[in-house]
Write a structure and sequence with these properties.
2 copies of one chain form a homodimer.
Chain A: H1 22-31, H2 35-42, E1 50-51, H3 52-57, H4 63-75, E2 79-84, E3 87-92, H5 94-107
Antiparallel strand pairs in A: 1-3, 2-3
Chain A binds a DNA duplex (30 and 30 nucleotides) through α3 and α4.
Chain lengths: ~120, ~120
DNA sequence: TGCCCCTATCGTCGATCAGCGATGAATGCC
DNA sequence: GGCATTCATCGCTGATCGACGATAGGGGCA
């Protein structure tokens, strides 16, 4: 039972309302630029954290490869990692991905010109 | 005057409603994974096509480098290219970027679980 | 015809990515 | 203490990216 004790993920995921720079946006896009990483993020649709082993079990990839993908997602700011004894709990930083998605929407939004 | 004769860009940009695969999503993300390419797309916020030279003039990068970025954006499906004599008109495929953005929104949307 | 403009492509170089196995550190359990 | 589990990191390899200059081709225009 004590192993199912996720650390209260992502609730303090407060939105940072400053607009994202092109550099920041491209960093996030780089995090998304591999099918395995998209699939990893899909595992977090249920707002539940996962330990790395759970992610590894979902793929036909070596543990070290998954660990590398998790690192890239962390560095892109798309995942949070919390060590808990021998485990690491991961959860998605929804606000970051959402802010990225909204910036992309704005790029497609001609009416954004009204603000210029 | 005849040089300002953009080829009726992107109006036939009909949405393709099939959900995007992880492979497709990561291809699009790869197209977005460089600050110069984000900035290139920003030039298309006004729904107007541009020739490659206009893009080159906006950057401190060699023409061949910009041409390469335009190629990657084309291959990611984010830009359309239309040759017109010596020029190439580029315009943004808004529906593609929007569909990508909406897929990212869904990843952040816990209520998407209701559909499962 | 000849020249210039606009672009795409080629070749090259260094940097980063993507994959793997192996190793090692931290922790919990017996 | 000893061992198994979990995970990150370290090489290593091949592939791709990002930048450039140089080159070449396709049109217009004089």
């Amino acid at each position: 039972m004590s192993d199912t004790h996720p650390p209260m993920c992502g609730m303090a995921d407060h939105p940072e309302p400053e607009p994202l720079s092109e550099e920041r946006l491209s960093e996030i896009a780089k995090g998304l630029a591999h099918p395995a990483r998209i699939r990893i993020l899909e595992q977090f649709i249920e707002c539940q954290p996962h330990i790395a082993q759970e992610i590894v079990d979902e793929f036909d990839l070596a543990q070290s490869t998954i660990s590398e993908h998790l690192r890239l997602l962390r560095e892109a700011g798309l995942l949070n990692a919390t060590r808990d004894g021998p485990r690491t709990w991961y959860c998605m930083r929804r606000a970051v991905l959402r802010q990225f998605a909204e910036a992309m929407i704005e790029l497609t939004d001609t009416s954004a010109l009204a603000d210029v």
